[in-house]
Amino acid sequence: MATAPFPYRLAAFDLDGTLLAPDNTIPERTARAISRLVELGVQCVLASGRTHQSTARYAEALGLEAPVISYNGAMVRLPNASEPILHMPLPAEPAATVIRFCEQQGLHLNVYLDDVMYVRTLGRWALYYQRQTGSAPVPSGALTRFSGCCPTKLLIIDEPECVVQLEGRFRRELGDSAYVTRTNPEYLEFMHPSVSKATALLDLARRAGHGAAECLAFGDGDNDAPMLAAAGLGVAMPRSSAGAIAAADRFQKEGGAEALALAVERIISEGADPS
What is the Cα–Cα distance from 210 to 221, expressed in whole angstroms? Predict the structure, then answer.
């Protein structure tokens, strides 16, 4: 009897908490599992809230030539391309609202323009973010200079309890004018209202002639939940948020830093029987 073809054609992988170990490296077993998917004809894409360059370096380390989804889906771009396939920046008005509030309250804010991350000063949170992601912040003084611009995204960094309060405030104030989401306990992000990792993944699938049922997705955060729900098979990682677990088809509880590898190996072993 002929072997059934592998049922998935496109796979998307979140970075932090999913692809990457706590030290920001890719476990060897994970790299081998992704290589096996590529051998099976699956287009493997990285999907992160990080900048394009910060995400693309991991795609290059894995030898992936597929487009990179960055800024939580606000940008889709080939690793070494100068122009994006898709770019949906945050509109100027909600961006200015967030910038003014942060300046008035003395909150730390990252402003992303042209794949450059601007901050007011190199303070505690700027250096924290640099350690977490490897992205170098550019100090620029008062961020109100960017009022009127359409940044790719904005990111407030603060203590988790403060971030929870700010999320509620901005969801009420901005309404449908911006996509507001927590991506880490300390991170509150603002993007174009139509942006999500799900819309970027499904756009890539459509361009390649694939349906949502042919997509795999792996993630751990609230910002991954739409992508996990939209894919034919969504898998939540061990330290996933409640929202990610609820949106996923599976919850990979075990495996630690190699949880992604275990999840991929299981899917490959199932072949045409994903139940």
Answer: 25
pLDDT at residue 195 tops 80: yes
In contact, 92 and 150? CB cutoff 8 Å: yes
Q: Which long-range contacts (CB under 8 A, 24 or more apart) does 230-235 make?
A: 230/198, 230/201, 230/202, 231/12, 231/201, 232/7, 232/8, 232/274, 233/8, 233/267, 233/274, 235/263, 235/267
Per residue in 71-90, pLDDT tens?
Answer: 999 999 999 888 999 999 99
Which one, of 167, 163, 155, lies nearest residue 186 by Cα? 163
- Containing 104, the helix (H) or strand (E) segment is helix 92-105
Q: How far is CA 203 from CA 131, 195, 200, 215, 258, in A?
A: 32, 11, 5, 11, 29
State if pTM tops 0.85.
Answer: yes
Mean pLDDT over the full length of the chain:
94
- Residue 3, pLDDT score: 56
Q: Which residues of 84-112 are buried (b: 16+ CB within 10 A; e: fewer)?
A: bbbbbbbeeebbbbbbebbeeeebbbbbb
Strands 215-219 and 10-13: parallel
Give ∠ CA 6-11-16 in degrees, rounded to 5: 145
